[in-house]
Every structure is written in C-alpha cells, then in structure tokens.
Write a structure and sequence with these properties.
heterotrimer; A mainly alpha (149); B mainly alpha (115); C mainly alpha (87); A: 149 residues; mainly alpha; 4 helices; 0% strand; B: 115 residues; Helix Hairpins; 3 helices
Chain lengths: 149, 115, 87
C-alpha cells in the first residue's frame, strides 16, 4: 500500500486497541463487555492485514493460538471458583476481595471496583474472541498465496 | 396491524433471505442469503423485549424512576450473533476450497461425488 | 418445477407476515416475571450496574460456556480446511 495509508495505519492502530480495551474493561458498568470489545480489537487486526499484507503477519499464528487457549482455560477456571455452592456462582461480589466493593442500589455513577468475577470473565472471553477472529481473518488471507496488493 | 410494524419488518428481512436462498445458484449469494435470515431473526429477538417508554437496563446514570427494557432477549441475541459469525466463517472457508478444487462456484455443477 | 418453488415461497411468506401481524401488541411484553426479578436483584447478587452483562455471565453463564465452545470449534474447522499440505 502507499505511504499515506501505511503512516495513518501506524497512528490509528494504538487508538483502536485502547478503545477496545476500554470497552472490555468497563463491561459491567456501560454497554459492552467481552464479545463487543473483542470484535473491536479484531477489526484492528483486519486493518493491519489489509495494509501490510498477509506475509508479514504470518509469524503471529502461534501467539494467537496461545492467547485463545489461555482465554478458554481462564474462563473455565473462573467458573469452577464457586463450586462449593453451584457451578457459575459469583463468589467475589460484595466480599471485599479483588473486585468486591458492594454496589449502592438505584442509579449511581459506576465504580470500577465492583462486579466480582464479571470483569475477569470479560477479559477471558475478550482474549478468546480476539484470538479467534484474528486467526480466521489471518488464515483466509494466507490461503491465497499471501500476495494481495 | 399497523401497531406491529417492527415485527412485520423483521419477517420481510427473513423473506428476502429466503428468496435469495431459493432462486440463486452462486455459492456466495447463498451465504449472503443465510446471513440475511440470521440478521432478521436477531432483530426479531431484540424487538420482543421492548417495554413502551423504557430505557436501557443499565443503572449507571439511569434517569430516576423509569421503566427498564427486558434484558433477557438481549443476552440471547449476543449468543446468536456469535454463532452466526461462526457459521458464516465456515461457509466462506468451504466456498474457497470448493473453488480451488472444481474451478466453478455454480451449485448445480458440483453434484457428483468423485475422487 | 419452478412454480412449485414460487408457490412454496409465497405460502411461507404469507404465514410469516400473518403471524407477525396477529401477535401480541408491540411494547407490551407477554410474560415478564423473570426479568422483573433480574432488574430488581442484579445489583445486590451479581454486584454490577449492567443487568445484561450480569444475565450473560452470572445468571445464564452456562449458555456463554456453550457459545465459547462453538467459537472454538469454528476456528478449528477453518484452520483444518485452509491448511497448506507440504509436499
């Protein structure tokens, strides 16, 4: 691609990653969460694929596979945390631990410290969606020979 | 009947996808028809949970004393969108491999199981 | 053969639009006891302001586990179809 497109892609990509991380992190306060933020970050991977070609991004396949496995294992491990009561119980909500501040009832400005296991599950599912969508787009780009100008 | 207009629009989307699935032969056009049917079904699920003069079911900066829209159909639609994405990715991967092997994308010419 | 397809399509579209026009009115949900419980108790039990996220990950977390499995299987299927066999 031309110089203008490459320079703008280098400037825009950190902004897209920051916005996607914001949407994933505040999933328990504003509309958003793991799936939506993961789709936003995967669109940054698609932008890099279009601008720089699939040959330069072919070395990241193993990293994406590792991220997807980490996300899936973290999600199942968080589900097993409350196995004393039920399978998916939220044991960290309102208990004073990592994300455990109690929530005042009724409309309030959101506090990041609340939520229990919800922000951790948001990050696990977000990593899984980023790695999954990024792998699919990368494999479809690599299959055609890798030369798309 | 004119009060149920959002439901009728969702059914028109499903009917358009069904028309593309019945009357076209190209594999990519069939994939687009299936995607249209999935979009119509997701829209129908979201419009089922509307409460008249309701706001989004979020307590952050909510207007005090307002009724909230039902949250369960929105949760089911999230799952449905991700599953639709998975089936679309698999369909397009199959179309690419079929074109590499047979040289054509016509659904009537890829009939015999050879090889 | 073509007229059978056109006839079946018209019958299906007529059934869909007729069923949508004679449903319960738009804006008045049919049964909302479960959602009233979710809206009233989501801040106390799940501890989050967003009721939709607490429904997805806390009250109905098992569906999210199934969805993560479907996403994983789709990525494995695409990676199996689009591999380069080295000869």
């Amino acid at each position: 691609m031309t110089v203008v497109v490459r320079t703008v892609a280098r400037i825009i990509t950190p902004m897209i990653l920051a916005f996607g991380g914001y949407v994933i992190m505040h999933g328990h306060l504003t509309p958003g969460g793991g799936f939506q933020g993961g789709a936003v970050v995967a669109s940054a991977i698609a932008l890099l694929l279009v601008v720089f070609g699939a040959r330069r991004l072919a070395g990241y396949k193993n990293l994406l596979s590792l991220l997807e496995d980490l996300g899936a294992i973290a999600f199942v491990a968080l589900a097993f945390l409350g196995i004393g009561y039920t399978f998916f119980r939220n044991v960290l909500a309102g208990s004073g631990g990592l994300f455990g501040m109690p929530v005042p009832s009724g409309p309030n400005p959101g506090f990041l410290d609340t939520g229990g296991t919800l922000p951790l599950m948001n990050w696990a599912v977000g990593l899984k969606v980023i790695a999954g969508l990024g792998s699919v787009v990368l494999l479809l780009g690599l299959f055609g020979g890798g030369d798309d100008r | 009947m004119i009060g149920n207009f959002p439901f009728v629009v969702c059914m028109i989307l499903i009917a358009l996808g069904l028309w593309a699935l019945l009357f076209r032969r190209n594999l990519i056009k069939l994939a687009i028809g299936i995607t249209l049917i999935e979009s119509g079904v997701n829209l129908f699920l979201v419009t089922l949970g509307y409460v008249r003069a309701g706001v989004a079911p979020i307590y952050t900066y909510a207007p005090p004393g307002a009724k909230m829209v039902l949250p369960t159909p929105q949760a089911l639609t999230l799952t449905s969108i991700v599953i639709g994405l998975a089936t679309t990715a698999l369909m397009l991967a199959f179309a690419v491999v079929i074109y590499r092997h047979r040289g054509t994308l016509d659904a009537r010419k890829i009939r015999e199981l050879k090889g | 053969m073509k007229w059978i397809k056109v006839g079946a399509f018209l019958v299906m579209v007529g059934f869909l639009v007729g069923a949508a026009a004679w449903m319960h009115p738009f804006g008045v949900p049919w049964a909302s006891e479960m959602d009233d419980y979710f809206i009233a108790n989501a801040q106390g039990e799940a501890g989050a302001n967003n009721v939709v996220t607490s429904v997805v990950f806390d009250y109905r977390g098992f569906d999210t586990l199934g969805e993560a499995t479907v996403l994983f299987c789709a990525v494995v299927g695409v990676a199996l179809m689009l591999r380069r066999v080295l000869r």
